[in-house]
Amino acid sequence: MKLDEIISTRLGGKNFFKTSYYKFEKCNQLKQKYLKEKKLPLINFGIGESDQMPDLTILDELTKQSYVYENRIYADNGIDAFKIAAKKHLKAIYNVDCEKKHLKINHVMGAKSGLVIIPFSFISPGDYVIYTTPGYQVLPTIAQWLQAKLYEVPLLEENNYLPDLEAIPEEIYKKAKIFLVNYPNSPTGAIANVAFYRKLIKKALTYHFLIVNDCVYGPLTYHQKPLSIFNLAKSEKCCIEIHSLSKAFHMTGFRIGFVVANAALMHILKEIKDNMDSGQYIPIQYAAIKAYENEKNIIEKNKAFFYDRLLKVSQILNRYHLTCKVPEATFYLYVKAPKNFKTGEEFFLYLLNEGGIYTIPWDEVGPYVRFAMTYHIEENEEIFYQTLENRLKLLTKIKDNDNN
Question: Domain 56-295 belongs to what architecture?
């Protein structure tokens, strides 16, 4: 029996491995290849996994709760204490009152898990999923495996990286089941505004589709108060929002987050989740509760940490004609490749192989790469930033090539 003959046709059959690649895994394989050759020590601006440990109170709580006998069991759809803490988090950070909006919360094993559960809950063959690009492709990928049709909407700088809702044909809206957005946005660092969400909700109510906002970077805004789609009127009728502790709390590997929706939608999501996992380890849920209890201090500290890095790295990149702006949110710099590179991937490979600088390419809307401010500093900051400058000086193909 040949492997390519038994792969589900729903997944693409023989073409599965040609069409299913996960961007970050492909980049990681190229990174591993570079590390075997190790021309220069790697400067890692790649995956958005913080180099920092979580706050000690979080780690202490995880340790303490791990010794509690009752916490060894299946968590299923989560403990009530986590749901209560998540409700308080939504109120404190976004001023969203779950009781008044009649919203329900359920934990998920990281945002990725939630983004997989949602299409399994609502997609039928032939349904359309509208999604923005560049962006995180997990939900569209799963939807496509479920035989949905995808409609891609570009995020352009001239529109502040918001989708042009009026450019989407009415026949697509009529066939749509889910409209996926991600704000604050990776990789652009853009934030949504009330006017945009208001228009999107009106479209959803008119054409009867669900809005999913991947809000994992929600607290990491630098000049404006964080915005949830549930700050908008009537959002509870048609919206699902996903939150995570991975980014704002340095808790990537904990795999803990939550989904918010009205009671009817949540009932469906919980039933599907029950068949897909048995819940996150209860001590991790208690560690998340502790994070929320101390979130004011933790988030402000972490925001200052990332913003300082964004300023320093952007200043260096701009000196070498790699034009970028400090974003409104997240911890990413979205950098257009110099004119003598045809694609972001070509530029990514040049930075990696010639400079030992690891980024993530984004070619969906022009030739870009993403620099994540999650790099690890081995010695001290001064040496790290000077090393970055020295590497860029050696890269002759970026000299005297601006993007204007």
Answer: 3-Layer(aba) Sandwich (3.40)
